[in-house]
Amino acid sequence: MAVPVIAGTTPQVQKETEASNPRDSLLRVNSNNQAFDFFRPWRKKPPFSRRGIGVLIEGGRILVTAELVANSNFIELEKAATAEKSAATVERVDYDCNLAVLKPVDPGFIKAMNPMPIDGNLKVGSELEVLQMEPNGDIARTAAKVTTIGVGGYPFENLGLLVFKAAVPLQQREGSFTLPAVRDGKLVGLLMRYDARNQTAEIVSTPVIRHFLKEMEDGRYEGFARLGLSFASLRDPQLRRHVKVTEPGGIYVTEVVPGGSAALAGIRKGDVILEIDGKSIDQDGNYDDPEFGRILFSHITSTVRHPGETVAVRISRDGKVEDLKVALQVPDRSRLVSEAHITDRAPRFLVLGGLVFVELSRSYLQEWGADWAKAAPQRLVYYDAFQNELPEDRGKIVVLSQVMPTPDTLGYEDLQNHVVLKANGRTVRSLEDLAEASKEPLGGFHKIELEEDPKLIFLDAQSVEANKDALMKHYALPALQRL
């Protein structure tokens, strides 16, 4: 989150006095990052650096956003006043909530520093400050005011979690990728996005931070649960009559994720959810939170409650009210057709005779740039967006991403981004299926069946085997597969 300069604005920035200096709780965090290239999954992209501000909290941990250290090769902590440096490692990162905690390699590096306490009972209109660092280590404060509190999407997973939105006229300063938001010397959140045009910031909220840290306590981190359903508003009086609901609120369940928390508890498509955890749900899915006002119910199931806990859910089914107990659980990512993000690990691939196969993921689609939802192949975008509507046993979507020109791929060089259905007569639901199928050619040929034209590809199996060393050498491939 680089913070740009806004021409014509004069933010009220105050340098710290020694009496109120929070510098003893803040550290510069320098991260060297290097992401994988999903178009050429056997290699990485050029490295780059990010710099932000980390906050020392209890337990000798430094809290930052996950984006700051995503795909990091090396992380360095730096004291603002003395420029002393120490290496650090990631103790825990959760891209769903965009948070990470770092630990210095040398614990003595932070011995004289003071942890910053965590606050967070903010309301719309609450005043806070965003902290930045001058090159000489002085702390600069910029006044901000909370304008909205609600459930919004987080960058990686687009999971709906509580977000503080604030009006704040930030100036560009080096090292502004992650910035702490404070009130009365206590941490209330971390900036994760900044809209320079409108001078508004989105802040990882305190309840999300507390949930993240609480999950770490027993050493068995699970993260954030999902209820596992989609819903529609029940404002339409005809729909309310159709589902026989007489109560004033309620939401209509449109989809239930197979194997998810709701499905295992017996919630079905067509049910109407009236209450969650004793809180009445209105026609848009909101409830009255005692701290933050009217917000979406998923704040209860994802943040207030933890995985493994049980919540009471009152539903109406065919006009009859029932009470169910829902055991909250995190989603089973192995069941996902297309993963939302692949970070800190290498993407999987398989090369067969010059045909490059990958598994569909949003990280792959994002290689088309910021406008990937329009620029990427629309069939693949559809599969990613509507994967819950695919058959439950669909498995992964294997994509012929590109074709390397080789003696075995003559005539196929222009093929790219085709969905693979079968290989050598075997249904392909993963790269492992493709790898196993490639061991048993049909009549001396590899037969690849595609979803779209040209429908079929044939490779001479004996030639593919004979040319594989030359293929690796010519294209500098470290391996022909990573599974």
Characterize the structure shown.
This protein has 10 helices and 29 strands. The chain is mostly beta strands and 483 residues long. It folds into 3 domains: 1-223, Beta Barrel (Thrombin, subunit H); 229-327, PDZ domain (Pdz3 Domain); 335-482, N-terminal domain of MutM-like DNA repair proteins (Alpha-Beta Barrel). The strands form 5 sheets. Strands 22, 23, 24, 25, 26, 27, 28 and 29 form an 8-stranded antiparallel sheet that branches.
Per-chain topology:
Layout: E1 13-15, E2 26-33, E3 48-57, E4 61-64, H1 66-69, E5 72-78, E6 85-94, E7 99-104, E8 127-133, E9 139-153, E10 160-167, E11 179-183, E12 186-195, E13 200-205, H2 206-216, E14 229-232, H3 237-242, E15 251-256, H4 261-265, E16 272-276, E17 279-280, E18 286-289, E19 293-296, H5 298-304, E20 310-317, E21 320-327, E22 349-352, E23 355-359, H6 362-365, H7 372-375, H8 378-385, E24 398-403, E25 418-423, E26 426-427, H9 431-437, E27 445-450, E28 456-460, H10 461-474, E29 481-482
Antiparallel strand pairs: 1-9, 2-3, 2-5, 3-4, 4-7, 5-6, 6-7, 8-9, 8-11, 9-10, 10-13, 11-12, 12-13, 14-15, 15-16, 16-17, 16-20, 18-19, 20-21, 22-23, 22-29, 23-24, 24-25, 25-26, 25-27, 27-28
